[in-house]
Specification:
Layout (H helix, E strand, L loop, with lengths): L3 E12 L2 E13 L4 E5 L6 H8 L7 E6 L5 E4 L11 H6 L9 H10 L15 H14 L4 E5 L7 H18 L3 E5 L2 H7 L2 E6 L2 E7 L12 H15 L3
Parallel strand pairs: 3-7, 3-8, 5-6, 6-7
Antiparallel strand pairs: 1-2, 1-4, 8-9
Helix pairs in contact: 3-4
Bound molecules: adenosine-5'-diphosphate (ADP) and magnesium ion (MG).
GO molecular function, one term: ATP binding
Keywords: ATP-binding, Nucleotide-binding, Transport
InterPro entries: AAA+_ATPase, ABC_transporter-like_ATP-bd, ABC_transporter-like_CS, ABC_transporter_ATP-bind, P-loop_NTPase
Length: 238
């Protein structure tokens, strides 16, 4: 199997001595070389699912199976760059010297549009540029999967739109495998090859988004009807 498979995954936390069931039996295929979006309202367990899948936490019950290679990188809502390191050193942070292929790092920095900013420090960059550096750092690590937890949520509308387009371009170019968490339906529709709607600790619906020629237009009938369907799924409680 290539990619990641979740089989009947359960997770609960104990809060104030009471168990809180967050994931109640999630089964899911996450293919490689695609963007799989986990969509759901705030507090539904998206971050928990991402942390489990990325190996930061253990499942209580069920199983997560990985393809041949299991190396994950994370991109969070905040860029989490080292303020005392410039872009180049942030991107190569965590790589052993022998793994630092100059040309490859240069091409990754170029792919995220930070050419010429290699020597800049995080405080000298805009929020969008900092997030691009965080994405470059994830790519440089050459993970089998990139786990992204609402990476653009803190950006303004225009920067966010630009970053979404750039992510699609970079993903297409590099063939990256991405698990992307968001609470924004529009973001899911713009980015996802597959969209997984989580509600009440379970997979409520899954959509395979058909390929479109060129950029996706959310005002196309296809996307309007997908959006309507997703909203209906998120609004109904069983
Ligand atoms: N480490 C933790 N300890 C206790 N409760 C947690 C912990 N992490 C998450 N939770 C709870 O689990 C639920 C889901 O959280 P989370 O996965 O962060 O949701 P989302 O990312 O969808 O907003 C929330 O009710 C949250 O309070
Ligand atoms: Mg979260």
């Amino acid at each position: 199997m290539a990619g990641i498979e979740l089989i009947n995954v359960h997770k609960q936390y104990v809060v104030d001595e009471r168990p809180v069931k967050v994931l109640k039996g999630i089964s899911l295929q996450i293919p490689e070389k695609h963007i799989t979006v986990i969509l759901g309202r705030s507090g539904c367990g998206k971050t928990t699912l991402l942390r489990l899948t990325g190996g930061l936490e253990q499942v209580d019950e069920g199983e997560i199976r990985y393809g041949l290679s299991h190396k994950t990188a994370f991109v969070f809502q905040e860029p989490r760059l080292m303020p005392w390191l410039n872009v180049w050193n942030n991107v190569t942070f965590g790589l052993e010297k022998k793994d630092q292929d100059q040309e490859k790092i240069e091409s990754i920095i170029a792919a995220v549009g930070l050419c010429g900013f290699e020597k800049a420090y995080p405080s000298q960059l805009s929020g969008g540029m900092q997030q691009r550096a965080a994405i470059a750092r994830a790519l440089a690590y050459e993970p089998s999967f990139i786990m992204m937890d609402e990476p653009f949520a803190a950006l303004d509308y225009f920067t966010r739109e630009q970053m979404q387009k750039e992510l699609l371009r970079v993903q297409g170019g590099q063939g990256s495998s991405i698990l992307f968490v968001t609470h924004s339906i529009d973001e899911a529709l713009l980015l996802g090859h597959r969209i997984v709607v989580i509600e009440n600790g379970l997979v409520k619906a899954q959509y395979q988004v058909p390929e479109t020629a060129g950029e996706r237009n959310l005002l196309d009938d296809l996307f309007i009807s997908l959006k309507r369907d997703i909203i209906n799924n998120l609004n109904t409680t069983e």
